[in-house]
Amino acid sequence: MQKLLELYKNWCGQNAANVEKLKGAGSNRQYYRLKNAEGQSVIGVVGTSRDEDHAFVYLSNHFNQRQLPVPKLLAVSDDELRYLQEDLGSTSLYNAIAGGRQAGGRYNQHEKQLLVNTIKELPDIQIRGARGLEWKNCYPQPEFDEDNVLFDLNYFKYCFLKPTELDFHEMKLEANFRLFAKDLVAEKTDSFMYRDFQARNIMLDDKGHPFFIDFQGGRKGPYYYDVASFLWQASARYSYKLRRELVYEYYNSLKNYTEVPSVRHFVERLSLFVLFRLLQVLGAYGFRGFFERKKHFIDSIPPAIQNLRELLQNNVSSYPYPYMMDMLKRLTELPQFADTAEQTVSRTDGLKTTDSTVYKAHPADGPATFSKYDNKGPLVVRVFSFSYRKGIPEDESGNGGGYVFDCRSTHNPGRYEPYKKLTGLDEPVIRFLEDDGEILTFLDSVYKLADAHVSRYIQRGFTNLMFCFGCTGGQHRSVYSAQHLAEHLHRKFGIEVKILHREQNISQTLSAKSIDTTNKK
Predict the structure, then answer these.
(1) Contact criterion met (CB below 8 Å) for 84 and 74
(2) Could you tell me whether strands 73-76 and 464-471 are parallel, antiparallel, or unpaired per DSSP bridges?
(3) How far apart are CA 192 and CA 221, in angstroms?
(4) Cα–Cα distance measured from residue 476 to residue 250, given in angstroms and rounded to the nearest whole number
(5) Rounded-to-integer distance, Cα 32 and Cα 511, Å
(6) Which residues contact 345 (CB under 8 A, 6 or more apart)?
(7) How much is the CA Rg of the chain, to the nearest whole Å?
(8) Which residues are CB-contacts of 5 (< 8 A; sequence separation ≥ 6)?
(9) Beta bridge partners of 470
(10) How far is 73 from 42, CA to CA, in rounded Å?
(11) Strand 380-387 relative to strand 464-471, pairing
């Protein structure tokens, strides 16, 4: 500690007026916030491994040269065991989305947007960050390979599987491990694998922009790993729907940096890394929890087992490792993990690998039907919420086309006093509806119908489409549904969407957006 204070004094010319030790997590490094007399602060770090600290120092300097969002290094000791870096504040993404996590995975729109902003920035450090990087500086090894995979799989076996006392055939499991390892490294990529990309390692500035920290374990490797690490974090409890949306955002962002495989191939590869990441974190939780008795890691085991259980429920037959999959299924059925099964929801978190486009149109085919609106474009979608007491909104476009959905079959928050003066745009109502779940099931069907219709209208160059959601008062369920469909269509297709909550006298236009497909340099 004294040497860190000396480093600070040599850097700024005065002693630190205040020193605050920061709470650590899984790392053995010690972090301090050091302030001068004017209250300006920096973060001081004391490490225990020169090689690991050297990796961080090198990567930090490299990423800053690439103008990536990482903390700036201010001073480094000669032995690189102590350094000072820019203070990015105390707000991590993990803290910023705590409300949704504590609500059992029901994230509000602000929290979801923070997640979207973060996942869209990930390809920047993975692809641009890899350019010109000298991999030999990475710790503990320069590249993700079979040995790396087998080490983590055996870490899972010895630190988690064996302590559960589950009976298994070690040689059969080892054979499946080796096959699994070969499959994971079969696709070579020149990208930076962050390796510990999780919400705790993302700091947010006062505008909510993400900054990346704790990347010293990164190396050359597949970008799928970090997506799996981020979206299948045990404690986050991201819903099936939210994970799909975030994978979609990542995939589209990745296109701006490099050539990408087909959606089918991407999802199939990602599913391998999801399974691997789940086993890897269970190994870490086993060591930190079973052996070191750290409460945070013990508490993380049930949601991690639940993630594994849900993955197996939907994907077990798609993995070509029959003995390993059978063993994992028996693991999730052990009595000590039985209570986590009660958390299972009707919709599982498995990844679907079917192509969404069954038939691709050919220009020679012509349109399936003919209309005076063909090839006019661009499409503008109008979405209404309304009260059935006051009638269905009129279509002023002249098309006479669109949909009217009746929301009155879903649970009505307006029946309860705390929500009577609120609308479907207010957070308490949103949490009520999403916690109940009926509105989510209802909208799943709406999204499928709307997506297909909008896609076809864009293809044909139609100009107008209308969606209306009605409920008793046009205040809660219809407002929630209209707002969410509008944002879904705008996010997915980039088209102009006009929203009118008629009974609330609220209107909004989501402007058409163009997607920049040029590679960032």
Answers:
(1) yes
(2) unpaired
(3) 6
(4) 32
(5) 45
(6) none
(7) 26
(8) 15, 16, 19, 34
(9) 386, 406
(10) 10
(11) parallel
Q: Helix 295-315 crosses helix 322-332 at what angle (to 10 degrees)?
A: 130
Q: Are 414 and 473 in contact (CB under 8 A)?
A: yes
**Cα–Cα distances in Å, from 504 out to 38, 314, 382?**
49, 42, 16
**Residue 59 and residue 218 in contact, taking contact as beta carbons nearer than 8 Å:** yes
Element of type H or E holding 389: none
Rounded-to-integer distance, Cα 361 and Cα 363, Å: 7
Bond from prior residue into 210 cis (ω within 30 degrees of 0) = no
Tokens of 316: 């077990």
- Provide φ and ψ at 146, rounded to 5°: -60, -40
* Distance in angstroms between the alpha carbons of the first and the last residue of the chain: 41
Each residue's pLDDT expressed in tens, for the chain with a length of 521 residues: 899 999 999 999 999 999 999 886 556 789 999 999 999 999 999 998 899 999 999 999 999 999 999 999 999 999 999 999 999 999 999 999 999 888 888 899 999 999 999 999 999 999 999 999 999 999 999 999 999 999 999 999 999 999 998 999 999 999 999 999 999 999 988 999 999 999 999 999 888 899 999 999 999 999 999 999 999 988 788 888 899 999 999 999 999 999 999 999 999 999 999 999 999 999 999 998 888 888 888 888 998 999 999 888 876 667 899 999 999 999 999 988 876 554 433 333 333 333 333 333 344 334 444 445 555 668 899 999 999 999 999 888 777 678 999 999 999 999 999 999 999 999 999 999 998 889 999 999 999 999 999 988 887 778 889 999 999 999 999 999 999 999 999 999 999 999 999 999 999 999 987 544 334 44
- Of 80, 79, 78, 71, give the one whose Cα is nearest residue 33: 71
List of long-range contacts for 46-49, beta carbons under 8 Å, 24+ apart: 46/1, 46/4, 46/81, 46/82, 47/80, 47/81, 47/82, 48/81, 49/139
Structure tokens at 512: 């058409």
Q: Which residue matches tokens 């940096």?
A: 257
Q: CA 499, CA 384: separation in Å to the nearest integer? A: 6
Which parts of 18-108 are beta strand (E)? 18-22, 30-35, 41-46, 73-76, 82-86
Location of structure tokens 């409920």 = 471
Burial class (CB in 10 A: 0-12, 13-18, 19+), 204: buried
* 8 A C-beta contact, residue 143 and residue 130: no
400 in Cβ contact with 371 (< 8 Å)? no
From CA 212, how far away is CA 71, in angstroms rounded? 7
CA distance 267 to 69: 27
Measure the CA–CA gap between 459 and 410, rounded to whole angstroms. Answer: 33
Beta strand 464-471 pairing with 403-406: parallel
**Tokens 């096959």 -> residue:** 179
Which own/partner pairs from 246-249 qualify as long-range (CB within 8 Å, at least 24 positions apart)? 246/115, 246/116, 246/119, 248/492, 249/116, 249/119, 249/120
Query: In the numeric block, which tokens belong to residue 279?
Result: 């086993």
The token duo for 296 is 């945070």
